[in-house]
Design goal:
By secondary structure, this protein is an alpha/beta fold. Helix content is 53%, strand content 10%. It folds into three domains: 228 residues, Spore Coat Polysaccharide Biosynthesis Protein SpsA, Chain A, CATH 3.90.550.60; 356 residues, no CATH class; 124 residues, no CATH class. Strands 1, 2, 3, 4, 5, 6, 7, 10, 11 and 12 form a ten-stranded mixed β-sheet that branches. β18 and β19 form a beta hairpin.
Length: 947
């Protein structure tokens, strides 16, 4: 007996595929009895094509979902009185092979228990790639086909087997079963209704078979984004992910549901991270939106679970994807990333090899491979390393640098570096607080550089001291690496083949020692050290502004902006320099290149890079201005006051009296002047001099200002400009050396040899001075002059403060308040920029002159437990405090140090302050902005985006 079949063909804007689909449907070797076409508000000729082929068409609004369209088709069959046993569901982009229906019916006849059957789906228009042979779903909501990516159909899967579900494109289902199960779920308007229906069918005891002998060619127009409808919108991935989550939660067993809810939450976060790694921000946000949509409407899940049968869960479990499959996909993803990185590195190496071959001398002769060549190749990288003098010298330099920095392996403090806090949580609290219980309480924001330091300390196991030691230990090698990369690219401005490797070695090692030679490293000026390590990486990223490809220029903007923000967090003056230099460069581009102003991709990337800095650092500079601490935008970080830098220091690359001998910087300036002589390097060397002059001009202007803080008068921080100036001169010298190697006549080579010897002495002398002659202030530590038991007491809470009074009546008295573990990195700047508490200053003034019980009460109310006069204590002040009621003499290790304990109840409520919700919002915005910028810095690797 031949089964009767009615076809339901659902269409929406499918005119490009419908002619072939109609031909495939009408040319079936086993024809269908009835065809009902449903058109959902097509704007093209779909409805007309269907009318010409099949007569009457069910026309519905564009908002009609796929389940509703199938239900309308069933209703039309009832109106027509059709009694078809089977329903064949087709999409307007699914073209069936002429024998597809016959194969499906034959499989149904062979297995009478089969109620749902599906064909083999192949890609249209390629016709050979496999798309699906039945589908299932994993515990994370991934649609599983069991096929390899891009797998071709070679008959390797041609066995009829039971599956969880089959695609609705070509699904053959018993009409009675479809009606029994209530059709497709209306909560799944476009995607995922096939898996949900198959799961419900299996749970109700029905069998679903995939029949590979039946072939349907599917364009997957909605999934691939070729066709958009009001139901999919612009976020196809959101609809697919929502459907997957709904299907899992609506059909899972009651026992697995709690675990599934937790797993999907954390799995979504992990998926988002994976999407961000491959720069697919849209997909990551779609995943999050889908999760929030499902979890925000639990009533929909409860209603769906009540309507589903629960009689065959064991049978369904055997049809689901194995539990380990998501973990294998995770390993595959990591493997794909590693493969992509390897391929990219190989492509870069191949391009460099081709470029070197193109610039090779025409007289070069390719000799045949000898046995010695084969031996060297078989010996591996060890032989290549040992036979490469540049690699050996770089390794020797790095080892020497690590030996020179070995003192920072322990906790360091001294000079401009305060001690590190005990735990990284102290940094996180300081950064997140809007009011700090420091001194007498302050709302001055924590410095911006605490965020990267806290992140680094967290990665290193929660030790702030390890973070600071890591920065100081690897600053020189990291700067060497960045300088080598940058100078290798810049060297091509002098000669097509780039600067000689010996010149690159000299330039990279000299640059790496700039923070050492200027004195920043030994004095613990962490900001200058970090800027020196980051500057060549920043300059390398900024070279992308000149890339011919506009997309690469914009990507360079994000990378340069992120690095500039990071460097400006450690050296705020660097932002002013970048802004000034950007204006100069853009103005020069407008003057030199006609029409540059009309091309946004020319001036836009530098503007974006500079504009990102105030956005990414907004939680620091906006509250700083709001709290009258804007001076911090022009100061070097660390303990104040910093070194005074004059014009000679700028030219010689030294921070005041710190650093190596001045003549090392003078030699670099002379070499940069000589770089103007070779014709090939005159223009790029002049550009370097312009950069140096901009830095020098800005430094000269800023040197005219000083700031009167509560504790002292401090100069403007010019450490970053010293580093920039040295970097510009160094690049000019490298360019000059590369150009001189090409142009010098034979009689000038003796002069060049003398210059080369003098130049080589610069890094050697700086390295030798560091290893032998320098004195590192960071090894000296910070003397507190406070008894140990008082320090231990102050660590119990902010109400156990210590008032430290220094000086004498004749010379003037100053005071500080110590709380917790003392003034640590980050806290020193907050306290230095905080305005004087005039009320507390009045209390201290009365305390040391004519203390009354009310004054001592004020000390307890401000959380002061001890009063200390460090050695040498002023006798008049000590006598006054001895006579004060409410002060009890306390012991001190040093007899010339005097101390008293406040005999009053201690209260820390005076340190409380208001919460700044503005800064809370700014921190949230900063976190989002950093995440977005980091993703935009990554290369585009998303396949859908690339296609």
């Amino acid at each position: 007996m031949v089964s009767s079949v009615a076809a339901l063909l659902v269409s929406h804007d499918g005119a490009r595929w419908l002619p072939a689909v109609i031909e495939g449907l009408t040319s079936q070797s086993t024809p269908v009895d009835t065809v009902v076409a449903i058109d959902t508000g097509s704007l093209d000729d779909s409805a007309q094509l269907l009318e010409r082929a099949f007569g009457d068409v069910v026309r519905t609004p564009v908002s009609t979902s796929f389940p509703a369209a199938v239900a309308l088709g069933l209703e039309r069959l009832r109106e027509q009185g059709a009694t078809s046993e089977w329903l064949w569901i087709l999409h307007d982009d699914a073209n069936p092979d002429p024998g597809a229906l016959a194969a499906l019916l034959a499989a149904a006849a062979d297995d009478p228990a089969a109620d749902v059957l599906g064909p083999k789906l192949r890609e249209w228009p390629s016709l050979k790639r496999l798309l699906e042979l039945g589908v299932t779903i994993s515990g994370t909501g991934r649609r599983e086909t069991g096929l390899e990516r891009g797998e071709y159909d070679q008959g390797q899967h041609d066995e009829v087997r039971e599956v969880l579900a089959v695609n609705t494109a070509g699904m053959l289902v018993r009409r009675s079963v479809l009606e029994e199960l209530g059709g497709f779920d209306a909560q799944l308007p476009m995607f995922g209704n096939d898996i949900d229906f198959g799961w419900r069918a299996a749970a109700a005891g029905h069998r679903t078979l995939v029949v590979p002998q039946a072939v349907v060619f599917h364009a997957e127009a909605a999934h691939r984004g070729v066709r958009r409808t009001p139901l999919t919108g612009r976020h196809t991935h959101y609809q697919e992910r929502r459907a997957a989550l709904f299907t899992l939660l609506a059909n899972a067993s009651r026992r697995r549901l709690p675990w599934l809810v937790v797993r999907l939450f954390f799995g979504t976060l992990l998926r988002m991270l994976g999407f961000l790694v491959v720069r697919s921000v849209g997909e990551a946000l779609d995943d999050l939106a889908a999760l929030l949509n499902i979890y925000a409407h639990p009533g929909e899940i409860r209603a769906a679970r009540r309507s589903r049968a629960r009689t065959a869960d064991e049978h369904v479990r055997s049809l689901l994807a194995p539990w380990w499959l998501p973990y294998r996909h995770g390993l595959d993803f990591l493997g794909d990333l590693l493969t992509a990185a390897t391929n990219q590195a190989q492509d870069v190496a191949e391009r460099r090899r081709i470029a070197a071959a193109e610039h090779a001398p025409a007289s070069a002769v390719v000799r045949p491979r000898s046995e010695e060549d084969e031996l060297l190749e078989d010996s591996g990288w060890v032989v290549r390393f040992l036979t490469n003098p540049i690699a050996l010298l770089i390794t020797l330099f790095v080892v020497a640098a690590l030996v020179g920095a070995r003192g920072v392996l322990d906790s360091v403090a001294g000079g401009g570096l305060s001690p590190a806090p005990v735990a990284v949580s102290d940094w996180w609290h300081l950064y997140g607080e809007t009011w700090h219980p420091l001194g007498t309480g302050t709302a001055v924001p924590a410095p911006a550089y605490l965020l990267p330091l806290a992140l680094l300390a967290t990665v290193l196991g929660g030790s702030p001291g390890a973070a600071i030691s890591t920065v100081l230990l690897f600053a020189v090698p990291f700067g060497l690496w960045g300088a080598w990369r940058f100078l290798r690219v810049v060297g091509r401005l002098a000669t097509p083949t780039g600067a000689p490797r010996w010149v690159l070695l000299w330039g990279a090692t000299t640059w790496a020692l700039v923070p050492v030679a200027c004195g920043a490293w030994g004095d613990g000026r962490l900001g200058v050290v970090v800027v020196a390590a980051l500057l060549p990486w920043l300059a390398h990223a900024a070279l992308g502004f000149a890339d011919p490809d506009a997309d690469r220029r914009w990507r360079a903007a994000w990378r340069a902006g992120l690095l500039l923000a990071l460097a400006s967090a450690f050296a705020p003056v660097l932002f002013l320099f970048a802004l000034l230099l950007g204006l100069v460069v853009v103005a020069a581009a407008f003057l030199i290149v006609r029409g540059a102003g009309r091309d946004r991709s020319v001036w836009g990337p530098p503007a974006v890079a500079v504009g990102l800095v105030p956005v990414l650092l907004a939680p620091w500079w906006i509250p700083a201005i709001q709290r009258h601490a804007a001076e911090g935008l022009l100061l070097d970080i660390g303990r104040l006051p910093g070194p005074v830098v004059d014009g000679l220091d700028l030219a010689s690359g030294r921070l005041g009296d710190l650093g190596a001998p001045w003549w090392l910087g003078a030699v670099l300036a002379v070499l940069a002047l000589l770089a103007l002589l070779p014709r090939a390097t005159r223009i790029p060397a002049l550009v370097c001099w312009i950069v140096a002059l901009v830095a020098a001009l800005l430094g000269a202007v800023l040197a005219l200002f000083s700031f009167d803080l509560a504790a002292a008068s401090v100069p403007t921080g010019l450490g970053a400009l010293v580093v920039v100036l040295q970097g510009a001169l160094l690049v000019a010298a490298v360019l000059g050396a590369a150009g001189a190697a090409r142009e010098l006549a034979s009689w000038r080579r003796a002069v060049a040899a003398v210059v080369a010897v003098v130049a080589a002495a610069v890094p050697l002398a700086a390295l030798g001075w560091w290893l032998v002659g320098s004195h590192d202030a960071i090894d000296d530590g910070i003397d507190t002059d406070i008894p140990v038991y008082m320090v231990q007491s102050s660590e119990q809470g902010p109400e156990h403060g210590i008032l430290v009074v220094r000086g004498s009546v004749d010379d003037g008295l100053t005071y500080t308040v110590r709380r917790g573990d003392g003034m640590t990195v980050g806290e020193d700047e907050v306290l230095a920029l905080s305005a004087e508490d005039r009320d507390f200053s009045t209390t201290v003034r009365e305390l040391v002159s004519r203390p009354t019980p009310a004054v001592v009460d004020d000390l307890g109310g401000n959380g002061i437990e001890y009063v200390v006069l460090p050695s040498p204590a002023d006798g008049d002040v000590a006598a006054t405090l001895d006579a004060a009621a409410g002060l009890v003499q306390a012991s001190a290790a040093d007899r010339s140090t005097r101390a008293w304990q406040v005999d009053r109840p201690l209260d820390a409520s005076g340190l409380d302050g208001p919460t700044s919700w503005l800064r809370v919002v700014l921190i949230v915005v900063q976190g989002i902005a950093i995440l977005v910028v980091v993703v935009l810095c990554l290369p585009t690797t998303n396949r859908r985006r690339t296609a």
